[in-house]
Amino acid sequence: MLHLAFDDTDSLKGMCTTFLATEMIREFSDLDLIGYPRLVRLNPNVPWKTRGNGALCLRLGRGVGGKFKVGELEGRDIFAWTGSKDHPPPEEILPRAAAVLEKWAEIEDVLTNPAVAVFDCKPPPSMYWKAVRDIVPIAEAREAAKMAGAFRAYKNGRGIVGCVAAAAWRPQDRTYEILTYRQRARWGTERDIDSESVIEMDGRFPETFNNYDTLNRKVTIAPRSSCPILFGIRAERPDRLERAMRTIRSETPDRWFIFETNQGTDEHLVKAGKSVKRHTSVILRGLVAGPPTVHLGGHVIFPLNSGGRIDCAAYEPSKQFRRVARALMAGDEVVVCGSVRDEPKTINVEKIRVVKLVESKVKVANPSCPSCGKRMKSIGRGAGFRCLACRTKAPATAGVWKRTERQLKIGWYEPPVSARRHISMPLKRLGLKENAYPSK
Ligand code: ATP
Q1: How far apart are CA 131 and CA 115, in angstroms?
Q2: What dihedral angle (degrees, nearest 10) is formed by the CA atoms of 156, 162, 167, 168?
């Protein structure tokens, strides 16, 4: 089969590369879709992403095997096949795909650098892993693209990185998202979605995730941008997504498709060694090295010792998650998942596991003198006690302490739904994965 991949077509003003995917499907109705369309999220820390750093790949050919419904377009059901018997040469497909891209992409926007590729060989899996975890030089992606088939890259050509990575993805873990699109006349206007129906859907379809932020009472299936998407529902499995979609009371969608994705998989995370590299996302295990501090804007920062010392931050947009960071104490053992921010070097915490909590205690009284029984006086912070009557000394540990209850429990914590990254694994999924981040 052919891999038709495209990326970097949208700007903050509009468009969405997944919408372009639906237009590509329309254009290539003379071919068959093989498998679900793919929406592949890449490194969330690349400096030049517009929003969620998503790239797209459609697999095309002449279908064989079983067929299943993947969407609706212009009132027609669209099917995909499980296999392909043959396909036209990439050179024949590329000019048609490029014409669709040129019609819809925001090419004039200074920040877009679109690319479209038609591969008859799959690029190596390493191209996916590097693009989801690190930075891929444009030249390296172009080389891989040349080996895999034909492509067209516009302006600085950066979009080819996403094309190669999306085509190179071989799902190990995967989730699905049904994306519905708005009628053209409504683009840019406020979305009409009944939030009660979102809450209802969330309850009725437990295999879906990240639908509604109960803490902040926010619908999280709809973007806030002016893009053509109406809403998207994510799930472990694709089989009930169409039903879940029909539970939502909203303006009538113009079209919809189910995408296979790497969203919610945590595939961007790597176990960090001694040093943490800029633009990457890491898993760090260590001890909290001092008390958390609250900074201007409400950000909470705590130092972590995990071989080296690094600051970890729960920023203001993570809302209630900051309570967790604030409740940490020096000596607590934690596993931190997050992206490396460059200046000043900080981990932007996406998820945290509290492994061990130190005891929290407050001094309630000075000790009684072991010689004369009088109440002793403190000599200074951590310096111990002295009896004013008989001059007897006692160590700091002689004070009378009372244990206080910690405001945290052992376990995982994550930001509320509206503050999560597309690629971060929600705890709802993490619970399904046995031994996700083993303790040793
Ligand atoms: P979307 O809005 O579709 O979710 P986005 O708009 O945030 O995604 P893009 O418009 O796709 O992001 O722009 C990201 C750009 O960065 C693309 O050109 C893509 O090829 C490139 N890119 C993605 N990942 C990497 C990487 N790891 N290294 C280098 N370039 C990358």
Answers
A1: 15
A2: 110
CA angle 315, 232, 65 (to 5 degrees): 130
Instruction: Dump pLDDT digits (tens) for 305-355.
Output: 998 999 999 999 999 999 999 999 999 999 999 999 988 899 999 999 999
Please choose, from the candidates 259, 265, 355, the residue with its C-alpha nearest in 3D space to the C-alpha of residue 22. Answer: 259
Q: Which CATH class is domain 175-261?
A: alpha beta
Ligand 1 atom closest to the Cα of residue 163 is 20
Q: 54 C-alpha to center of ligand 1: Å? A: 6
At 212 the pLDDT is: 98
By alpha-carbon position, which residue is closest to atom 16 of ligand 1?
Answer: 49
Indicate if the pLDDT at residue 434 is higher than 80. no
Q: Which atom of ligand 1 is nearest to the CA of 56?
A: 3
CA distance 7 to 254: 23
CATH number for 2-168 (one of 3.30.70.2200, 3.60.15.10, 1.10.3720.10, 3.30.70.600): it is 3.30.70.2200
What is the spatial distance between Cα 215 and Cα 219, in angstroms, rounded to a whole number? 11
Q: Per residue in 208-251, pLDDT tens? A: 999 999 999 999 999 998 999 999 999 999 999 999 999 999 99
Q: Is residue 279 helix, strand or coil? A: coil
Residues paired with residue 293 on neighbouring β-strands, in sequence order: 301
Q: What confidence tens digit (pLDDT) does each residue in 377-427 have?
A: 999 988 999 999 999 999 998 999 999 999 999 999 999 999 999 999 999
Q: How many angstroms is it from 8 CA to the middle of ligand 1?
A: 6
Specify whether the CB–CB gap between 243 and 256 falls below 8 A: no
Q: Hey, where are the domains in the chain?
A: 2-168, 175-261, 269-357+406-430, 360-404
Q: Is the model's pLDDT at 12 over the cut of 90?
A: no
Q: What is the architecture of the domain spanning 269-357+406-430?
A: Beta Barrel (2.40)
b/e burial code for range 175-202 (CB count within 10 A of at least 16 → b): bbbbbbbbeeebbeeeeebeeeebeebb
Tokens of 100: 């669709």
Strand partners of residue 354: 334, 411
